[in-house]
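Why does this matter for the project? Reviewers at the last site visit asked to see concrete outputs rather than summary tables. In response, this paragraph embeds two records directly. Each consists of the residue sequence and, immediately after it, the corresponding structure tokens. Nothing has been edited or filtered.
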Amino acid sequence: MNQRITFGEWLPDQPSVTGALVKANNVFSKAIGYGAIPSPVDYSQSASENLTNVVAGRNPDGTTSIFAGSETNLYKLDTADLSLDDVSGSTYATPVGQRWRFTQFGHRLIAANGFDRLQGWLLGTSTAWANLAADAPKSRYVTVVRDFVVSGYVNDSGYSSRIQWSALNDETSWTTSATTQADFQDIPDGGSVVGITGGEFGLIFMDRSIHRMSYVGSPLVFQFDNISRNLGCYEANSIIQYQGVSFFLSDDGFYACEGQNIIPIGNEKVNRFFYSDVDEVFLSNMSAAIDPFRNLVIWSYAAKGQGGNVNKLLIYNFETKKWSSGNTDVDRVADASTPSVSLEGLDAFSTSIDALTTSLDSRQWVGGKMMFAGVRNAKIVTFTGANLTATIQTGDLSAENRKTALTLVQPIVDNGSASVAISSRNLLSEQVTFGTASAADSENRVSIRSMGRYHQLEFTPTGDNWRTAIGADVELVPMGGR
């Protein structure tokens, strides 16, 4: 009998017999099927030391400037030759386990590293970073809420639960004043601040609670409401925000919050998988980014047995509400915007246009476009290369618990095909073992003969520009029949 299977949801927390995908690696979820994840390619030359983060600032003339941070320096990308110029105001002392975090307020880019005073760069004017103000706090986290710059975990005197904000519409004034509305708030419950996100309101993520800060004007300036008691953020580097929604990791899994509700997004899907896979000793090596083009939140982390080296991606499509995974050699993922690159400027990327590793159609070459990026050792990278090698593994296919012979597979891959391996077993207690993968022939058919009550198929999409892996047509023959 012929049967069409469509690649459904990847649910590693569920048993394979439910029909959910066992593996969806180096792909991202679409409304139907899965798309390809591009590989990371070097974007910049090397900085003088390994990088921990990258950010893009929007200049007054509409162009984009890209900056990166290391433990002791801040760099600016030179679009003429893609060098990373050291534009540090001093030698910084980023604490172990911390990294640079950035926000933009008007035409000023602001950076926090958890030890030095907040640093400022006036876009289009500055030539070196400098203290944002003499009274600017030394904070781990920084964001913008309405017309205020807001910092969290103020290190000046060890105020781990303090939120401090600037004067109204003046990021250079931080002295507490009823006139300017600059002030601070110590949050008494929930432990330490582990992250903040901004916008029309602020979200304060703490160890064991989440608070919303809402502007109410003088004399209080901001009102703080506890919207989640006992559930907080487990890892600061898991927090990422997009279009007013903040995504984060708690001690029991992944959540999203739009300011009112704490929404579980990984429950009974990937939470158990993640905690069984991640090396929690090195959880601080985690990072998070948004891929706006594909509607994705991407977390990178170090799996067990890697000595803390980041090697895995966990990918959530916030439109389809489905997950996938990936492999990586990128140290940190980040979202950034692209600077404009002229045709002459392409010389900095390659010896010739034909040798470019990124297609000329890529948004990488169009200034001001948000894109999925990161850092690898001392270089900035962008995920704009060739498709990563993908693997999609189905759950168990069966025919009413009867023994069958699986004799034919025809992959359904838009603009491509697939190699297929099969594992068959009679009992669910038996080991899943795949044979050698077979490539589809010129008629897109994989002839194979494997017998059992349960069959799992492993697909590796092929074709340099395959777009969507949708499923397959399979032929199951009841044993004893033809």
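We now turn to the second protein, recorded in exactly the same manner.
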Amino acid sequence: MKLRLYWVALASLLYSSYSYSDSTDVVYGSTNNAASDGLRWVMTNILPQQAGLVVNGVIYRYTTVKQTEDDLIVYVQNENAQGEGYIFRSVDDWSGLPQNTINKTVLTGGIESSFWGDGSIEWEGVGSVTDASVVYAYQYDPCFDPQSRPDCPGYKEPFDPFSLQQDAVNPLDDDLLQQELDRKASLQDEQQEDLDRKKIAAKKKADSRLEKVLGIVNTSLLAADASAKHAELLAMSLMPVSYVATSIPGGVYEDTVVLKDADIKDNGKALRNNLAQQLLHQQMVDLQYDNKK
């Protein structure tokens, strides 16, 4: 019971020593026993990870195991996390003293938590330490970061991009954009018209070349037909003629020639030539049409 009252009195001493006028805004607290799992500990697992937290003091207790005549020095310490050496080191010299239990409070003056490196209890000499307890008294301002709570002075409402309600804008309603679209559409129409004119001119040129080819073919066919007829007539004119002396009785000869058929048949050879010319013309027209497709 006496030990518990001792800890309460020490905590009250620490808190009262480092309070200020706005004490209602400051949170005071103490850690669990840092040495509960051994004589070395990591401070990030001991101190609350709170912005603006400072350590006001260290309260420790341990029991020595030694002979009175033996030399023994015990260190309760924390490394300096921001540099070399120790941020806190308490030295107890038990040399020539009997074994005993010590309860000690060391005020640290509000050192920021980021400086507190790993802690430990070590000793030099003959003996050992048991039943160790190390507690850190701390304080922090919950409004050290004004954005931590809405009721903190200087708190600013976080910006919410979704809170801005904007009317939907149709980009096609923009005059400059619409003018550019109209210009491109007009340019496409002009390009299409130019392409159509080029196609028509190319078709006319191809038709003209085809007519020339057909004219050459027709001329060649006619020349061949004329040459054939000329050869036929020439052959007939070269046939030998035999003259036989005869006497023609006098008198009147009545016309006795009777035509079986009054119709004169067409020249079959000429008809074939005409058909061949027509077929060739049609094939060339069809070939040109296929190429256009």
